[in-house]
Design brief:
The complex is a heterodimer of chains A (170) and B (300).
Chain A lengths: L1 H14 L1 H13 L8 H4 L3 H12 L6 H15 L5 H21 L3 H27 L6 H28 L3
Helix pairs in contact in A: 2-4, 2-5, 4-6, 4-8, 5-6, 6-7, 7-8
Chain B lengths: L1 H8 L2 H34 L1 H40 L1 H36 L7 E10 L8 E4 L12 E3 L4 E8 L4 E5 L6 E6 L5 E5 L7 E3 L12 E4 L11 E7 L5 E5 L8 E7 L21
Antiparallel strand pairs in B: 1-2, 1-12, 2-5, 3-4, 3-12, 4-5, 6-7, 6-9, 7-8, 8-11, 9-10, 10-11
Helix pairs in contact in B: 1-2, 2-3
The chains are: A mainly alpha (170), B alpha+beta (300).
């Protein structure tokens, strides 16, 4: 019986790996790297996590989890509260619905899908921030941020593939 | 998703449950989208409640952020050490000449300090309240494309209060806007919401330093006839009683084309250690029979 319990506990722990990894990515994207100007264009690592798990294991990253991670990011980064939560829920919703069509495809398709997600997230953030601050904001740092997020996606998703194969139950 | 579950279980119950499940999923999605928009509206209308929630979350994650930022700081320090080694000789020469110059300044300063003391005693001048400084490390700084803020690892238990000025060795960096028990959020002077009353050191022209999310905040409400020129130092004016007067802020970059921008002395894009200035706010004097006294209630 105790074997069954420990197995069940292990299963529960493994089931929460995607959420834990995405939370880590959210906290990591707000860490200071002391590189001049990096703070402005810091890649949105949590978005990569939300997108990747929405495609590959939507069952282990619920919309509620995506919402909470987004809100966590907003609180840590100082962005308008609710903005990233909204973006993550929409990405989770749209990608989760389309996820089946991307899951088995070559990586290039996944990356192209992420281009769409990152660009959409960027435009949404720009519009909401402009309304929030009631000012027309310079979109240049955002373009860099979206570019960097897209460019780093292959590396992060490679890491996530590894984690998925090593840790997650099939 | 629903069909997958159906296939896996194959029971008649789940077949009936599938459309219901889909409906629940749609409902959850719509609910979360509305919740996010609701939080945004709430945050805009009543920022205190959302701020409190954010402070609790930051406090909770501050130790994790600190842990993550350590390796980055270590790498950064190592790179800086190597850089320093490579220009040890030139740096030494530069410091030697600077030292000579500073010794002269020291003599002048001592002379002036003595003079100042004697003149103050002649005038019966009451000094500004003393300031205390709290050192802190920046543990979070990437606020995204449209926010210029940082999280520091000092909070209420260290004496940090909302509104206090945050400085580096070079100059003013920002102001504390939210405080938790062991962490605080600092709004940098470059943020679009930042307004700091300043004064141009040489001409004594007052202005407001307004952030614009770029590395070069601008001076607004500068008098039309202000005689400012490139390179003039800008310091805090102390108006509003929040910041102590005379904190160095930056140097004027360009003047003349209408918009006056300044280059901040503090390196806002690579903050590592900062000091929070604990400054006792000067309240307006109370007039009337209650008599003067700091901390009294202003009655009208």
């Amino acid at each position: 019986m105790s074997g069954g319990l420990s197995q069940r506990l292990e299963r529960v722990a493994r089931d929460h790996v995607p959420i834990a990894i995405t939370i880590f990515l959210a906290v990591f994207s707000t860490a200071p790297f002391y590189i001049p100007g990096y703070g402005m264009v810091a890649a949105n690592l949590a978005l990569m996590g939300v997108f990747y798990w929405s495609v590959h294991r939507p069952d282990l990253l619920s919309p509620v989890a995506a919402f909470c991670i987004g809100l966590l990011y907003d609180f840590l980064a100082g962005t308008p509260p609710g903005m990233t939560a909204l973006i993550f829920v929409v990405v989770r919703g749209l990608t989760g619905a389309q996820g089946g069509s991307l899951a088995g495809k070559p990586f290039l398709f996944l990356w192209l899908g992420f281009w769409g997600a990152a660009a959409g997230a960027g435009v949404t953030a720009w519009i909401i921030s402009a309304v929030w601050h009631a000012a027309l904001l310079d979109p240049a740092p955002l373009l860099f941020q979206v570019g960097l997020t897209i460019a780093l996606f292959p590396f992060v998703s490679w890491l996530l593939v590894w984690i998925q194969h090593k840790l997650l139950p099939v | 998703m629903a069909s997958k579950l159906n296939f896996r279980n194959g029971s008649s119950i789940s077949r009936f449950a599938a459309p219901f499940r889909l409906l629940v999923h749609r409902f959850i999605f719509l609910f979360l989208v509305s919740a996010a928009i609701g939080i945004m509206l709430l945050g805009r209308a009543d920022s205190v409640m959302v701020e409190k929630a954010s402070v609790v979350v930051i406090d909770l994650f501050a130790p994790v952020m600190e842990f993550i930022s350590r390796p980055a700081a270590t790498v950064n320090n190592a790179v800086r050490t190597i850089e320093d080694f490579s220009r040890l000789y030139t740096e030494n020469e530069r410091l030697r000449t600077e030292n000579e110059r500073l010794k002269d300044w020291q003599m002048v300063a001592r002379d002036l300090a003595a003079q100042n003391r004697s003149l103050k005693s002649l005038l019966g001048y009451s000094a500004d309240p003393g300031t205390r400084q709290i050192s802190a490390r920046v543990v979070g700084d990437s606020g995204g494309a449209f926010v210029r803020s940082a999280i520091i690892n000092a909070g209420v238990r260290d004496g940090v209060r909302k509104g206090q000025a945050v400085i580096t060795g070079d100059g003013l960096a920002g102001r504390v806007i939210a405080v938790g028990l062991q962490s605080a959020r600092v709004l940098l002077i470059s943020d679009i919401n930042s307004r700091v009353p300043v004064v141009v050191e040489s001409s004594r022209d007052r202005a407001i330093l307004s952030g614009n999310n770029s590395g070069q905040p601008k001076l607004t409400f500068l008098p039309a006839n202000a005689a400012v020129k490139e390179g003039d130092r800008v310091v805090t004016s102390g108006h509003g009683g929040v910041f102590p007067a005379g904190l160095p802020v930056g140097a004027i970059l360009n003047a003349g084309d209408g918009v006056v921008r300044i280059a901040p002395f503090a390196r806002l894009d690579r903050l590592e250690f900062v000091r929070v200035v604990d400054f006792e706010e000067i309240l307006p004097p109370v007039s009337g029979p209650e008599g003067p006294g700091r901390g009294g209630v202003v009655s009208r």
